[in-house]
Structure formats: structure tokens, C-alpha cells
Amino acid sequence: PFYVYAYAFGDCLVNSLYDVFQQGHAGFQDKYFDMLKSGGTLRHKELLAPFGLDASAPAFWKRGLGIVSGFIDELEGGF
Questions:
Q1: CB neighbour list of residue 40: distance below 8 Å, 6 or more residues apart
Q2: Residue 3 in this model has a pLDDT that exceeds 80
Q3: What is the pLDDT of residue 78?
Q4: 57 falls in which pLDDT band (50, 70, 90)?
Q5: What distance in Å separates the CA atoms of residue 23 and residue 8, rounded to the nearest whole number?
Q6: How many CB atoms lie within 10 A of CB 3?
Q7: 36 is in which domain, residue-wise?
Q8: Any idea what the Cα angle at residue 14 is, between residues 9 and 22, rounded to 5°?
Q9: DSSP 49
Q10: What would the mean pLDDT of 50-65 be, rounded to a whole number?
Q11: What is the tally of structural domains in the chain?
């Protein structure tokens, strides 16, 4: 019962990374591959720092949820 928060965190993390990618963040691909290569050796704060993201900041969550909001707007608008 106490693991479901990980899904919400993971979803916001991926959405925030997607937003960084969409914004054309310099070196995104290299930083993303470095993040994947690190495996489980780093904590999320260290993994997200190269992308200018901080999961302890409300802006991180707003950014991730903004992607979902955009998808909802698209669906409501009929694309």
C-alpha cells in the first residue's frame, strides 16, 4: 500500500524531462544517456540536476503536471 507514490513521482519525472527536451535544452541527449548509464548509483537529486530540475521544488511538479494538462487540452479540443 505504500509504494504507489513511486508511480506518481515517476510520471512527473518523465513528464518534466519531456518538457526539458521539448524546450531544446542544450546537450539533452548526452545528459539523458549519462543518466541512464548511471544505473542506480545516484539519487534523483543528482540525476535531475544536469537538466535544471529539482524534485523538491513545486515548479518540478507543476512542470510535470503541465504536460498532462496539455494532453487533456488537446483531447478536449479534438486535436
A1: none
A2: no
A3: 73
A4: very high
A5: 23
A6: 6
A7: 5-76
A8: 145
A9: G
A10: 93
A11: 1
What is the mean pLDDT of the segment spanning 30-36?
96
Residues 6+ apart with CB under 8 A from 68: 11, 15
Residues of the chain with pLDDT > 70, as a percent, come to 96
pTM greater than the 0.85 cutoff: no
Task: Judge whether 16 and 63 are in contact, CB under 8 Å.
Answer: yes
DSSP state of 7: H
Q: How many residues are there in the chain?
A: 79
Distance CA 17, CA 32 (A): 9
Secondary structure of residue 40 in the 3-state scheme: coil
The span from the CA of 19 to the CA of 13, in Å, is 10
- Of 19, 37, 40, 38, nearest to 28 by C-alpha is 19
